[in-house]
Amino acid sequence: MTYLFSEAGLASLHGFVDPATLYAFDLDGTLAPIAADPGGILVPDAIQKALARLKKRAVVAIITGRSRKDAQRHLGVVPQYLVGNHGAEGLPGWEQREKKFRRLADEWEKQLSRIIPDGENSGIVIENKGMSVSLHYRGASNRPASRFIALNAVDLLIPQPRVIGGKYVENLLPKEAPDKGTALLRLMDGAGCAKGFFVGDDRTDEDVFQLDGDRLFTVRVGTDKKSRARFFLRVQREIPLLLLHINDVLA
Ligand SMILES: [Mg+2]
């Protein structure tokens, strides 16, 4: 991974940015700093303004693990595309298949409430996001123990979901649902954008980072030796500067 604000990183960024690129961003930990209470995240003013500016010059997409409705509450700015549930919700043309994803999420929620009967003792919060289910254990007194309980419960689910871990969360997704990588490629096709730019910070973003090719420019917030992202930012606070660079090139 190359630091984006190194000489080489900035040269690549300036060489890549053009108005025919689709600019896609994760929400939590990327556009908004992580908050102790997930309901309390905020997209800082500077980022909202920069996104509004970017939207006038190019196609902007937000691809988040939250539901679309939940994400829009925190976003402020309304992007051209808003994809929720880690890629499973809001892709144009997927409306019929989304009904099946909803049924699966409801079924898993029901089964998990039976398998993990006492939410408070287990330290696990079950969140049905509509087309995926998240098992949160950020607030648990013993996080490794809660994670163990969560993963054991997931093993018992019928049908089995695709499981992607995150920061104190296990995300359960329909196996047939598009992931963030598929979502980005579909959006690029639909919008007629030859290239895609993406910034994320977590394990579900690796579905984008692992895509190959010169068509994509991938940035991870925070370093991780195992990540497939090409570039990294040191901290989330560097996002406004990144947007400034993009907007300046486009102007
Ligand atoms: Mg994130």
Describe this entry's structure for a reader.
With 251 residues, this protein is an alpha/beta fold. It folds into two domains: 2-91 and 178-250, 3-Layer(aba) Sandwich (Rossmann fold), CATH 3.40.50; 95-173, Alpha-Beta Plaits (2-Layer Sandwich). It has helices at residues 7-16, 45-57, 68-75, 95-115, 119-122, 143-155, 180-191, 206-209, 239-250, and strands spanning 2-3, 21-25, 59-63, 81-83, 125-128, 133-136, 162-166, 169-173, 195-200, 216-221, 231-233. The chain has a seven-stranded parallel sheet, sandwiched between helices. Helix 2 (45-57) packs parallel to helix 9 (239-250). The two termini are 28 Å apart. The model has no long low-confidence stretch (mean pLDDT 95). Bound molecules: magnesium ion. Magnesium ion is lined by residues 26, 28-30, 200-202. Magnesium ion binds next to loops.
Short description:
Helices cover 39% and strands 19% of the residues.
* Average pLDDT: 95
Strands, count: 11
Helix tally? Answer: 9
Overall tally of structural domains: 2
- Given as residue ranges, the uncertain stretches (5+ residues, pLDDT < 50) are none
Bound molecules: magnesium ion
Helicity level, as a percent range?
A: 25-40%
Task: Report the biggest beta sheet as strand number plus sense, adding barrel if it closes.
Answer: 7 strands, parallel
Proportion of beta-strand residues: 15-25%
Q: And the CATH topology of the largest domain?
A: Rossmann fold
Strand pairing plus helix content: what structural class? alpha/beta
What is the name of the CATH superfamily of the largest domain? Answer: HAD superfamily/HAD-like
Series of H and E elements: EHEHEHEHHEEHEEHEHEEH
Radius of gyration: 18 Å
What is the topology, as strand order, of the major beta sheet? 1-11-10-9-2-3-4
- Span between termini: 28 Å
Q: Tell me, what's the shape?
A: globular
Proper CATH architecture of the largest domain: 3-Layer(aba) Sandwich
Please give the CATH class of the largest domain: Alpha Beta
